[in-house]
Amino acid sequence: QEQLVESGGGLVQAGGSLRLSCTASGRPSATSNTYAMGWFRQAPGKEREFVALISWSNGLTYYVPAVKGRFTISRGSGDDMMYLQMTNLQPEDTGIYYCAAAPRAARELDAYNLWGQGTQVTVSS
Questions:
Q1: pLDDT higher at 32 or 86
Q2: Residue 17: Cβ within 10 Å count
Q3: Residues forming beta bridges with residue 123, ordered by sequence position
Q4: pLDDT tens, 20-79?
Q5: What are the residues facing 50 on neighbouring strands?
Q6: 119 φ, ψ to 5°?
Q7: pLDDT score for 47
Q8: How many CB atoms sit inside 10 A of residue 73's CB?
Q9: Largest Cα–Cα distance of the chain, in whole Å?
Q10: Exposure of 108 by Cβ count < 10 A (0-12 exposed, 13-18 middle, 19+ buried)?
Q11: How much of the chain exceeds pLDDT 90, in percent?
């Protein structure tokens, strides 16, 4: 069964850093039909929103303006790992962070057909 699992969340003070990981597993691989993978987040009482994506074939990346310059999305050397390096974290970055896979590059949630369970990121002021 294809599966994505996030890890690396936690509590950090404003200005701090965290590195999130997304591990893909299953048979076939969770990324076998993937064109892009993305990170999304959902703050308390708000809708889930797009954060960043990476093309699985050529590594091109895209970020929302709110995180550009502070967050870096990357993939591992194989097909089973993706990361989100987050620096200079701010309280407004607080939320549950999800990784997801899509058969095309997109920012819309409904383009993504495989999701992880999420990892909590809390930034204190």
A1: 86
A2: 11
A3: 12
A4: 999 988 755 656 667 899 999 999 999 999 999 999 888 899 999 999 999 999 998 877
A5: 40
A6: -135, 135
A7: 97
A8: 24
A9: 43
A10: exposed
A11: 78
Q: Which amino acid is at 75?
A: R
Region 1-25 average pLDDT: 95
**pLDDT value at position 104?**
85
Residues 6 or more apart whose Cβ sits within 8 Å of residue 76: 82, 83
Which pLDDT does position 108 carry in this prediction? 94
In this prediction, residue 77 carries a pLDDT of: 82
CA dist., res. 101 & res. 30, Å (int): 8
* Core vs surface per residue 86-97: b (16+ CB within 10 A) or e: beebeeebbbbb
Residue linked to tokens 């950090």: 12
Instruction: Tell me the DSSP string of the chain.
Output: --EEEEE--EEEETT--EEEEEEEESSS-TTTT-SEEEEEEE-TTS--EEEEEEETTT--EEE-TTTBTTEEEEE-SSSSEEEEEE-S--GGG-EEEEEEEESS--SSGGG--EE---EEEEEE-
